[in-house]
DNA sequence: CGACGGGACGC
DNA sequence: CGACGGGACGC
């Protein structure tokens, strides 16, 4: 299922060479086996082709005119029936860049073009092989990036870099269950595909971003209802469209699909949902009713509640969905509110900002307030392994995750400093307060009310006198000095190294080569590096004897590519 | 002696 | 409901 990674070459340098291919560009296929041209070009770059369900009368020129404002359209293909030549109401549009396709989808989905009445349904095209099959969490594939992160990098730092491309749903770094050390990769999830695409194309290449495979869905206790849950196939779930007649006989008499276009206001619903529901879950629910065209979920800033706009292709479906789902408890304890969307008018696309009109902001009597008060409790819950449930999304959870990480950082700084948090709860190494100071680790094997030191932690800590903790340098800082570090017999844990080497200021990154006893520290300032050498060379840290010296320059930048690349054609 | 990292989400 | 064609000498 791999999304094609365009380029697997890596220099380990943060500044990628000017002539190297980036995620935004396309490959040259001229030398490639023709049999693979087609497959390859559709996914290059990944998710850059649109699948559009549309009225049958729209022409290629109509599409070009409507879509070329979002980027470079390399192909428009209006699908026609092989035998009859009749348009099938399906069109593919290929863009040169993923972000162009993303923007076009966000802007054009639900819109009409020309004077063709039927609104377009615009989706990112699947691979030919996947076809129309839907996947369990597939919207994640468009919103979430898989990234490689330096082991010393914290979630705050990761967020800091990726916030420049758009609003972040969450970031997470995967950590070892027991040691809580970073495993060197993580995820960044956005709310909008165009933001994820921008990050995919423009983030620092050392992150090696990929659109993440959707996470297998956690079971979402959906008992108490006949819903077989997201992923269950449509229509077989107790909804019986055929047996349903909408309240208004007039509406019901309209032809379902292709006849006169439905007034959009009658095919669009406004939904208020629990803050815990994400767009995917909402989609799965409403998709139980055939005829769902799209859902646009937004969140009310104050209440955190989901405000969704749900578009159906016909009045019957919309009316049926409203009737069956209004008041439905989903998830249990949270009633959905489903109405026809009175605020909708033709000028307003699904993605134009749609502040919920006051009359639609219901007070939900059944809904508990979004647990504000207990900040500390919330953070603890977020850190505790028991905090299951769906992935956090939305500002509240994001804030909690943020807070949890800050606390985890402070805790491990205290650990690294060898201070008993009970004895010196105020004095700890709060130096990481700017978000840069902390190791990625959580509090290690922790029990409520006390911190248990990791097994391999040597309480003698460090033989040298250490300065106070310092903030780290920005990840994209220019490297002023690189140090080579050797640890005998074994290296201290990463969070200790980061804390100790960070105390001389301006530390960008430090890592131990995997399976080895040596590694590198990068400083943004030469003086800091020199102080580190003076203070730490020959000293002992966690029972390891340290050698700390300037690193030999990285000679022979072998990118790992033997292939002759023809990017030297200057003229 | 010791030289250039890390890749799929909780067992 | 709504998922895959036609054309092609370019490098």
From TrEMBL:
Renumbered residue ranges of the record's region Disordered: 1-43, 376-396, 425-448
Domain RRM, chain residue ranges per copy: 48-127, 149-229, 267-343, 481-553
Pfam families per UniProt: RRM_1
Bias (Low complexity): 7-21, 378-395
Record flagged with keyword Cell wall biogenesis/degradation: no
This protein's record includes keyword Cytoplasm: no
Record SUPFAM superfamilies: RNA-binding domain, RBD
Gly residues bias (residue ranges): 425-439
GO terms, molecular function: RNA binding
Biased composition (Basic and acidic residues): 22-42
PROSITE patterns documented for this protein: RRM
Domain of life: Eukaryota
InterPro entries listed in its UniProt record: Nucleotide-bd_a/b_plait_sf, RBD_domain_sf, RBM45_RRM1, RBM45_RRM2, RBM45_RRM3, RBM45_RRM4, RRM_dom, SLIRP/GR-RBP-like
Keyword entries, A-Z: RNA-binding
Coiled coil: none
Protein name: RNA-binding protein 45
Species name: Amphibalanus amphitrite (Striped barnacle)
Gene: Rbm45
């Amino acid at each position: 299922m791999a999304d094609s990674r365009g380029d697997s070459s890596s220099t380990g340098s943060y500044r990628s060479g000017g002539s190297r291919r980036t995620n935004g560009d396309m490959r040259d296929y001229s030398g490639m086996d023709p049999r693979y041209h087609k497959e390859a070009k559709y996914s290059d770059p990944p998710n850059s082709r649109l699948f559009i369900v549309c009225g049958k009368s729209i022409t290629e020129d109509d599409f070009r005119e409507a879509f070329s404002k979002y980027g470079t359209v390399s192909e428009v293909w209006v699908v026609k029936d092989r035998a009859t030549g009749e348009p099938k109401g399906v069109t593919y549009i290929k863009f040169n860049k993923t972000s162009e396709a993303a923007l076009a989808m966000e802007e054009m989905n639900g819109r009409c073009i020309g004077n063709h009445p039927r609104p377009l349904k615009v989706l990112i095209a699947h691979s030919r092989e996947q076809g129309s099959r839907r996947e369990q969490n597939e919207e994640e594939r468009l919103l979430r990036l898989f990234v490689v992160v330096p082991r010393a990098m914290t979630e705050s730092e990761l967020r800091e870099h990726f916030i420049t491309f758009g609003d972040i749903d969450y970031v997470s770094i995967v950590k070892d269950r027991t040691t809580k050390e970073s495993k060197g990769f993580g995820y960044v999830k956005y709310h909008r595909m165009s933001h994820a695409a921008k990050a995919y194309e423009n983030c620092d290449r050392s992150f090696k971003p990929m659109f993440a495979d959707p996470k297998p869905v956690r079971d979402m206790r959906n008992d108490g209802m006949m819903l077989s849950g997201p992923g269950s196939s449509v229509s077989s779930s107790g909804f019986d469209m055929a047996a349903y007649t909408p309240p208004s006989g007039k509406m019901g008499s309209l032809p379902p699909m292709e006849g006169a276009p439905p007034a959009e206001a009658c095919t669009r619903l406004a939904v208020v949902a629990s803050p815990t529901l994400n767009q995917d879950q909402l989609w799965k629910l409403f998709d139980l009713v055939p005829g769902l065209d799209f859902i646009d979920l937004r969140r009310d800033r104050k209440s955190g509640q989901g405000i969704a706009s749900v578009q159906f292709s016909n009045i019957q479906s919309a009316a049926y969905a409203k009737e069956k789902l209004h008041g439905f408890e989903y998830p249990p304890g949270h009633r959905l509110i489903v109405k026809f969307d009175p605020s909708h008018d033709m000028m307003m696309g699904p993605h134009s900002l749609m502040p919920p009109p006051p009359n639609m902001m219901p007070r939900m009597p059944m809904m508990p307030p979004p647990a504000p008060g207990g900040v500390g409790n919330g953070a603890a819950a977020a850190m505790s392994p028991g905090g299951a449930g769906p992935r956090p999304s939305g500002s509240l959870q994001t804030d909690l995750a943020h807070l949890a990480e800050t606390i985890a950082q402070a805790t491990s700084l205290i650990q690294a400093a060898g201070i008993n948090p009970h004895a010196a709860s105020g004095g700890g190494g709060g130096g990481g307060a700017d978000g840069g100071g902390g190791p990625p680790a959580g509090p290690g094997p922790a029990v409520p009310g006390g911190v248990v030191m990791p097994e391999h932690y040597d309480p003698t800590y460090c033989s040298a006198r250490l300065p106070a903790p310092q903030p780290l340098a920005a990840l994209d800082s220019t490297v002023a000095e690189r140090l080579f570090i050797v640890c005998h017999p074994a290296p201290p844990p990463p969070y200790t190294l980061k804390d100790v080497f960070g105390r001389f200021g301006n530390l960008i990154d430090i890592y131990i080569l995997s399976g080895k006893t040596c590694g590198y520290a990068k400083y943004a300032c030469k003086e800091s590096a020199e102080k580190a050498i003076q203070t730490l060379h020959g000293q002992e840290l966690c029972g390891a004897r340290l050698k700390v010296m300037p690193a030999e320059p990285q000679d022979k930048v072998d990118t790992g590519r033997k292939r002759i690349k023809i990017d030297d054609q200057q003229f």
